[in-house]
Amino acid sequence: MEIAKLYEDELFQIKHKMYNTEKAICYVLDKLGLKLEEDFKFFTEIDNTPFTKSNKHKVDVMLTSRKDGSKLYVEIKGMMTYIEVNKLQFLLNETGKNFYILQLTELDWIKPYKGRSAKAAFQKSKSDFETQVQELVDFVNGNCSGEELSNRSKVRLKNFIEHRGKDLKTWKKSQKKL
Questions:
Q1: Which single residue of 3, 27, 88, 102 has CA 20 to 30 Å from 12?
Q2: Residue 13, pLDDT score
Q3: Distance CA 61, CA 100 (A)
Q4: 100 phi and psi angles, rounded to 5 deg
Q5: How far apart are the first and last CA of the chain?
Q6: What pTM does this model have?
Q7: DSSP conformation letters of the chain
Q8: What is the distance between the alpha carbons of residues 115 and 152, in angstroms, rounded to a whole number?
């Protein structure tokens, strides 16, 4: 099935709108025939991980269908809060694993977004979805490595932080008050 058609698929939209983005993405990856493990847990091998006492982190999806046996850990993200951004920086930079951030709600994830209309936002969201899912397909097909995709996520996260830095600082201040 074509990636663009999957984005408009009624079941995908229902799952995504019901705040079950992880299940919606797993549905899409399954439709594309990608082998994956959901809710995979791995030991980070780093003491004092900032988000758990047990040093175990539950990854949203682990892609395993690559012929050479390499794995890609996929974090599926919605709204990027200050806490989420810090957690993602840790996963990308400190674990030694190949992580990929699949971001579906922030319109300026792949590049800054300046549109104003709902139609433009839908088209940008659809385009970002297609780009990211195609990157996962390319990984599975051996057209790019997990390290390449992990580095791409690092760059996108860095650019997102630079572009949305003011928002992130505001969120940090409001979270301290809680």
A1: 88
A2: 66
A3: 10
A4: -130, 130
A5: 45
A6: 0.81
A7: --HHHHHH-HHHHHHHHTT-HHHHHHHHHHHTT--EEEEEEEE---TT-TT-SSSEEEEEEEE---TT---EEEEEESS--HHHHHHHHHHHHHS-S-EEEEE-S-TTSSS-----SHHHHHHHHHHHHHHHHHHHHHHHTTSS-HHHHHHHHHHHHHHHHHHHHHHHHHHHHHHHH-
A8: 24
- Check: CB of residue 61 under 8 Å from CB of residue 89: no
In sequence order, the 6+-apart residues with CB closer than 8 A to the CB of 43 are 55, 56
Residue 96 in this model has a pLDDT that exceeds 70: yes
Which residue matches tokens 């800054």? 112
Residue 19, pLDDT above cutoff 60: no
Cα–Cα dist 100/76, whole Å: 8
Rounded to an integer, what distance in angstroms lies between the CA atom of residue 62 and that of residue 69?
A: 12
